[in-house]
Amino acid sequence: MSYTEMLERKSEILKKTVENWVLKDNRDGLNRQEAHMFQNMIKELHQNEHELNGVRDKEVIKRQN
Questions:
Q1: What pLDDT does residue 23 have?
Q2: What secondary structure, in 3-state letters, does 8-61 show?
Q3: Which pLDDT score is estimated for 1?
Q4: How would you label 11-42 residue by residue, b for 16+ Cβ within 10 Å and e otherwise?
Q5: What sign does the CA torsion over 8, 9, 13, 16 have?
Q6: Are 4 and 49 in contact (CB under 8 A)?
Q7: Which of 4, 27, 36, 63 has the most C-beta neighbours closer than 10 Å?
């Protein structure tokens, strides 16, 4: 598994996890600890997406050269 594939898989997992947290928040609300964990998941998802976009950009540049 390449680094890009690993980041893509991690992104899929994080998106599903965040989706589940959103559903829980809408249904039951989140306590302080859960809200903190939810915030951290969103941060991690954004960091992962940023890193994935950077890696993809580098791959495109390599292919063009």
A1: 98
A2: HHHHHHHHHHHHHHHHHHHHHCCCHHHHHHHHHHHHHHHHHHHHHHHHHHHHHH
A3: 86
A4: eeebeebeeebeeeeeeeebeeeeeeebeebe
A5: positive
A6: no
A7: 4
Question: What is the pTM assigned to this prediction?
Answer: 0.86
Residue 35 pLDDT: 97
The average confidence (pLDDT) of the chain is 96
| Whether the Cβ atoms of residue 62 and residue 24 lie closer than 8 Å to each other | no
Cβ distance 24 to 30 under 8 Å? yes
Q: What is the mean pLDDT of residues 39-56?
A: 97
Q: 65 pLDDT exceeds 90?
A: no
